[in-house]
Design a protein that fits this description.
With 401 residues, this protein is of the alpha+beta class. It has 9 helices and 20 strands. It has a 6-stranded mixed β-sheet with strand order 1-2-5-3-9-19, with helices on both faces. A hairpin with a 2-residue loop joins β6 and β7. It is globular, with a radius of gyration of 24 Å. The protein starts with a helix and ends in an 11-residue tail after the last helix.
Length: 401
């Protein structure tokens, strides 16, 4: 659309601020989804909302070409109680320690930042991807370019990327005259994806999964003075010791060992009654060496407590060796790393990498922010990456790349 990086940045900043001003916790993204969809429409980008997800494709979409998807998420976590400004309409200019705060985050003026809930995770990636997509929207590429802005990512909801991907696989999405609608040319699942998350524009080539297990030890209540009953707390403690000492034999060459941490325990009601129930929570960060079901089965065989997974779908992800996504990152001298956090990558059935503006350390914390230079850098590097990838031919459906 002929806009410079500076112009795209200038137009992205107010959009991001508008997004922040609309509360959009997981499962309640309708208002922000409608707002961003309207922005795309005003910008000449035909788009379609599937539940609260937004999908847009180039008007030149062809089923004979492979497809690259840019995807970020619109939802946020709930704000923490210790924000020093309104997380939705931040007035950080009135903070007593404003100058110290700005100095601590490495900027000299409040005009250099966008602050508020979701600014860093994942608004900056969404805004930068929208800008990059606008840049390429009416340009011919050797592959199709698609934009997906998803919902429910923070809570692993089923009506987010999981629903979008299922619609690709079942053929429920079609292209018609450059718009997304029902009828005409079927939109195939993407072949590659860039997952937008705050990584300082470094390219994550793998990420750990997430498996949360609820453990429940059951005993028999009794009076503590008479040493009656079966103490469920002791059963849980024995199992926790076994979990703490458990070693997974397979080690990932990319991610290392599976990480397991017991993070919560609860038992008892009064001091003189032997507890008949004790619950505990285990946080596990799997690698690609095990499925979540395998891990659950292995640990259950070690424990007397009943172990129940909250979700078995949050798998680990890794970019395959030889993927053109890694080759492109190498050509651009982009730093690659292994991400300890999860994202919508786990719900995508194609080669992917994860990168976006901002810093993961700011996510889910008070006084969230992103700098405007970071947004600009994100736009520039997304455009540069897509341009570099376009030079790596061939990308027809019949090619093996």
């Amino acid at each position: 659309m002929g806009k410079t990086i500076d112009t795209l940045t200038t137009e992205s900043v107010p959009l991001l601020r508008e997004m922040i001003a609309i509360p959009s916790p997981s499962f309640k993204e309708e208002a922000v989804s409608c707002h961003v969809s309207a922005f795309l429409t005003r910008s000449g980008i035909a788009n379609f909302r599937l539940k609260n997800n937004i999908i847009a494709i180039q008007p030149s979409y062809s089923p004979d070409k492979k497809t690259m998807m840019l995807c970020a998420h619109l939802d946020t976590v709930s704000p923490s109680d210790d924000y020093t400004f309104d997380p939705y309409t931040p007035d950080y200019t009135r903070l007593d320690n404003r100058h110290e705060w700005l100095e601590a985050i490495g900027v000299t003026s409040s005009s250099e930042i966008v602050a508020g809930l979701g600014a860093n995770d994942d608004g900056a990636s969404a805004a930068a991807m929208i800008a990059a997509f606008r840049h390429f929207y009416d340009k011919e590429l050797p592959f199709n370019l698609m934009l997906v802005l998803g919902a429910e990512e923070e809570r692993s909801g089923k009506d987010g990327m999981e629903t979008v991907w299922k619609a690709f696989e079942t053929g429920d999405l079609h292209a018609c005259d450059g718009a997304v609608s029902f009828g005409q040319t079927r939109i195939s699942p993407p072949d590659w994806a860039i997952v937008g998350e705050p990584t300082a524009m470094k390219a994550a080539i793998a990420e750990r999964g997430l498996l949360v297990i609820d453990g429940l030890a059951e005993g028999v209540s009794g009076h503590a003075a008479r040493e009656e009953g079966v103490n469920a707390l002791y059963i849980a403690m024995d199992d926790i010791r076994k979990l703490r000492n458990f070693r997974f034999s397979k080690v990932s060459p990319l991610m290392g060992k599976v990480k397991l941490t017991v993070t919560q325990i609860n038992a008892g009601t009064v001091h003189n009654v032997v507890p008949d129930r004790c619950s505990f929570v285990v946080d596990i960060r799997p690698t690609e060496q095990y499925t979540n079901s395998e891990i659950l089965g292995m640990l259950q065989s070690e424990c007397r407590s009943t172990l129940s997974a909250r979700n078995l779908r949050n798998r680990s992800s890794a970019t395959p060796d030889g993927s053109p996504l890694i080759e492109c990152a190498s050509r651009l001298d982009m730093e690659t790393f292994i991400s300890p956090t999860t994202s919508d990558w786990m719900r995508i059935g194609c080669d992917a990498i994860k990168m976006g503006p901002g810093d993961s350390a700011r996510s889910h914390r008070k006084d969230e922010y992103v700098t405007i230079p970071e947004i600009r850098d994100g736009i520039e590097k997304y455009i540069g990456y897509i341009g570099c990838f376009a030079g790596m031919a061939p990308f027809s459906k019949n090619s093996t790349d």
